[in-house]
Amino acid sequence: MMKKTLFDKIWEKHVVKEIENGPCVFYIDRHYVHEVTSPQAFAGLDARGMKVRRPDLVTATADHNVPTIDQHLPIKDELSAKQVKTLEENCANHGIEAFGLNHKHQGIVHVIGPEMGFTQPGMTIVCGDSHTSTHGAFGAIAFGIGTSEVEMVLTTQCLMQRKPKQMRINVDGALKAGVTAKDVVLYVISKLTTSGGTGYFVEFAGSTFRNMTMEERMTVCNMSIEMGARGGLIAPDQTTFDYLEGRQQVPKGADFEKAVADWSQLFTEEEAVFDKEYHYDAQEIPAMITFGTNPGMGIGLSDHIPTADEVDDTEKRTLAKALDYMDFREGDAIAGKKIDYVFIGSCTNGRIEDLRAVAEVVKGHKKADHVTAWIVPGSKLVEEQAIEEGIKQVLNEAGFELRQPGCSACLAMNDDKIPAGSYCVSTSNRNFEGRQGPGSRTLLASPITAAKAAISGVVVEA
Amino acid sequence: MEKLKIVNSTYIPLRNENVDTDQIIPARFLKATSREGFGDNLFRDWRYQKDGSVNEDFIFNTGKYSGKVLVAGRNFGSGSSREHAAWAVYDYGFRVVVSSAFADIFKNNCTNNGLLPVEVSPEFLEELFSRAEADPKTEVTVDLGAQTIKIEGTSLSESFEINGYKKHCLMEGLNDIDFLLSITPEIEAYEQAK
């Protein structure tokens, strides 16, 4: 018999029906919903006069479009206010639990899901957001969908899905000092490019991932989409179970023990075959930063910006266009580049461990005068923890501003925009042209690298 | 959803590779609660200068190119899952997008909206670019039933892949939801057995 992968095991349990020469009917266990990609889906249901099939499996929050200061006041932007209000109305009409603005559990959908224990091993999880891949850290099949698919899941709890190809990315060994989960994933994307994973679902395996905390694993899986993969996942283990135990939505007592026994079966069998496999040595991975306009354009902090001769023919045009946009020259060192903004937050790096790492770096220092440093917690709970642990005070003393939860300057749908031409070292996930505001220039990096840049005012080597 | 069978049209060649969904429709235009009107902001920051004036150099604005087919460089539609990107391309008037590679979510979003993604070889893509650059009136015929794309006035054509189910849906203008609703008893049975 064919040996099964972790992905196979979860996939097979969720196939409702096979269609000849077509996709499968695929069942969804948890559906996260936010204000930007859901209104048209609810409108579709209303047009059919239908109700959400399983409101108990839907979790909603407002994150993409919310302000990160003065959240207690009405939202000034009319369109944003309307989207947030529409979400609240839709949830009320359909009996969906909503963690809207000012709710004690509000936050970025991919932060609150795991935090509250909605995300569990073996589940299938979707959301109208490509970074749904984050939840794969728990050994779940989690991926982003479009609004038509949001409507399908709200209506039928199912999607039409073809089984993707499978890839395994192995990283083994201990990371060098100062190298984080974010650096690992930026390194892998720089090797695979932003289309290297297209058509695949990725399993991250090896001792480096085994030794990561859940929050670090989430950072890695979060960025699977940036290599073109639909999602990424990591087999659950004791670290996973320890994280889950006691969280609000997680089974308790004997039920928890039974769940752990089931979850423990979720691993890739030896000799299971992947369509593609890569191996990397953790010792080879440096602290990373991006210099261009896609997440595959990453280099070590001590490296120079590649020259046209150093990239494949197919990437030469992209490189030239990116350097023109960034106003960087090929061959330049990235260290020493002056920066204007630092953004620490997002579903990639907006969790409490990220804020702790930043506090450790900035404690006793001041940010450079010309730098604006925004720290946006991933959720209300993260914000509360940051205050309780004294992190907020450390940050304030260093001149950093701790704002309120939301997606914020990761995609700049609200007022948190990086001005045209300015450089921002950002812990988010995308450095596309204009991503952080029209004309903004983004350098993706870890929270540690971002914090150091805020203090020095330039990209620093180590 | 509108039915799509054969599209015969001139096309716009957009040579850029790795065009991400933030370029197709920047996030600040995602605040609508309906599906209409996104075409106005398709490639917004490439079509317009920072001061709001038209960028005459951008291929859409040169006055030379038009049509129902967009031909774009490799890895089109990467990044966000925003279906607004597919809506914007469709709303602008395109019915077919051609590239040598598409991002997965974007591809699904296209077929769910009556927009056909056609994946061709890098060589064929280059032919499409160079022929349109030599003659903007060059036409292609995309025949979904036959799964072929042909450059008119030449012997150049290529077949493309699409799964049978999606092909049927596009040709008949059917939505997945209709199909899923038709198998409700099977979904119920699955839930009970779970």
TrEMBL record, chain B:
Entries under Pfam families matching the protein: Aconitase_C
Keyword Transit peptide (UniProt): no
Keywords (A to Z) from UniProt: Amino-acid biosynthesis, Branched-chain amino acid biosynthesis, Leucine biosynthesis, Lyase
Superkingdom of the source species: Bacteria
Reaction catalyzed: (2R,3S)-3-isopropylmalate = (2S)-2-isopropylmalate
Functional pathway: Amino-acid biosynthesis; L-leucine biosynthesis; L-leucine from 3-methyl-2-oxobutanoate: step 2/4
Enzyme Commission code(s) on record: 4.2.1.33
Keyword Iron: no
Gene3D superfamilies in the record: Aconitase, domain 4
Domain Aconitase A/isopropylmalate dehydratase small subunit swivel: 1-122
Top enzyme category: lyase
GO biological process: L-leucine biosynthetic process
Described function: Catalyzes the isomerization between 2-isopropylmalate and 3-isopropylmalate, via the formation of 2-isopropylmaleate.
Protein family membership: Belongs to the LeuD family. LeuD type 1 subfamily.
The protein's name: 3-isopropylmalate dehydratase small subunit
Gene: leuD
